[in-house]
TrEMBL record, chain A:
Database matches in Pfam families: TetR_N (PF00440)
Molecular functions (GO terms): DNA-binding transcription factor activity; transcription cis-regulatory region binding
Name of the protein described by the UniProt record: TetR/AcrR family transcriptional regulator
Key words, A-Z: DNA-binding, Transcription, Transcription regulation
């Protein structure tokens, strides 16, 4: 580093010595975090597309600073999506497939409903930006694949006994019935409270599992 | 425009001139209007998004100014297209009558509902971008959902009427949410299911909810 500084003194002016860089990096990381959290707060508050000027005000930074940290709003929204997904990942613990059927259903519903409820404020923002944001779309796909994996492993004993086509259809139906769009529909479009929406979603998912179980039993017999 | 001005004195001699001229203009205006609506519709159905005015003008073969002369805002133009497509889907809807075995009614309802939602899919998908800011779109969604509710209640009346009021409401909410056009959109656009597979998922959910024999 010092050699380089000697060799190119001009660059030495632009890039500060190491300790200073670390302090800057730390500050930059904190500012970045503040911007992301401010955006999340605004979306939670009902702004599906927060304006940069509002994000700056909420974060206590300048609008110029936002674009120093993010190339464009697409990059900012992608970072927001990543932060939200990371905060929810711990909720999606694997479900032991050795547990009784009803307990696995309860565990799956608890997990799906908790995540769906936390994502409720982001539904409109995602629907709005997903078609134009490859990163956001990739994030949503990753989340769905994750939910699929959890569902498949939780009900592996029942699903294994089904034909391949029937198994895919059952998993597709389980995911659709517990999808956040379904939750959004129940909670927002049809105005059900948490309890009623939970009961309704459990009814749908349970009904699909009952069909699958009935089929797997008749297939085994 | 110059041709019009030149032609005007000639027709003036023909008598009944003023009326004819206005009618001719109205006719042309109506023709242009239709071209703009058709171009917007074609673009929405191809791209699943709201087209820009310049794209609409290009497709319709008219000037951008002309688009704005006919529609002050793109939103109102989009609503015309939305109404047109939704109107077609609704007029083609063949009611599922509350008679016969449940399994047959589920099959018929799901098949027809899937066809209707598939038809509306591009314009519904595009509408998400304006729904939050368009009272007209919110109102249309409300009306469409009320109509779907009636269709569901009609098809499954025997089963619904057997339930206690609370259970009935919950069952109806579940059916409405499951058969919502946005659920179709989610399966088709976000879960990547082809029409037949999305329809099979609906069939499974509704059959499970209503407890029909599988």
């Amino acid at each position: 580093m010092s050699d380089a500084t000697v060799a190119t003194p001009r660059e030495g002016v632009a890039t500060a010595p190491r300790p200073k860089i670390d302090g800057r990096v730390l500050r930059a990381a904190r500012t970045r975090e503040r911007i992301i959290n401010a955006t999340i707060d605004l979306i939670r508050g009902g702004e599906s597309t927060p304006r940069v000027i509002d994000i700056a005000r909420t974060a206590g930074v300048s609008t110029r600073s936002i674009f120093q940290h993010f190339d464009d709003t697409e990059a900012l929204f992608a970072a927001v999506a990543q932060q939200v997904v990371e905060s929810l990942t711990p909720l999606a613990k694997p479900i032991d497939s050795a547990l009784p059927w009803e307990e696995r259903l309860d565990a799956l519903m608890r997990m799906r409903i908790e995540v769906n409820e936390a994502l409720l404020p982001f539904r409109r923002a995602v629907a709005l930006h997903q078609p134009r944001s490859p990163k956001l779309a990739a994030g949503v796909t990753a989340g769905r694949l994750f939910a699929r994996e959890r569902t498949e492993s939780a009900f592996a004993p029942e699903l294994m006994r089904l034909s391949e086509a029937e198994r895919k259809q059952t998993v597709d139906a389980l995911l659709a019935a517990s999808d956040w769009q379904m939750w959004f529909g129940l909670r927002m479009t049809y105005g059900l409270d948490l309890e009623a929406a939970s009961a309704t979603m459990r009814r749908m998912v349970g009904a699909i599992l009952t069909q699958a179980t009935a089929r797997s039993v008749s297939a085994a017999a | 425009m110059t041709i019009l001005a030149l032609a005007a004195p000639a027709t003036a001699h023909a008598g009944g001139n003023a009326e004819t001229r206005i009618d001719g203009r109205n006719l042309r205006a109506e023709h242009t209007r239709r071209k703009i609506v058709a171009a917007t519709r074609a673009l929405v159905e191809e791209t699943f998004a709201l087209p820009k005015v310049a794209e609409i003008a290009l497709r319709a073969g008219v000037s951008v100014r002309s688009v704005f002369q006919h529609f002050q805002e793109v939103d109102s133009l989009f609503l015309v297209v939305f109404d047109e497509i939704l109107g077609e889907a609704q007029s083609e809807w063949e009611a599922v009558e509350p008679i016969g075995p449940l399994a047959g009614r589920i099959e018929a309802f799901v098949t027809r509902r899937a066809a209707a939602c598939e038809r509306v899919l591009p314009v519904r998908f595009a509408a998400i971008a304006v729904e939050a800011s368009s009272p007209g779109m919110v109102e249309r969604a409300k009306v469409a959902r009320a109509l779907t509710r009636q269709n569901i209640e009609r098809a499954f009346r025997p089963e619904l009427d057997r339930l206690q009021p609370n259970d009935r409401r919950q069952m109806l909410d579940a059916l409405r949410a499951a058969l919502d056009w946005d659920m179709w959109m989610t399966m088709r656009r976000f879960h990547g299911l082809p029409v037949e597979e999305a329809q099979a998922v609906w069939h499974k959910i509704i059959t499970g909810l209503m407890g029909a024999d599988v």
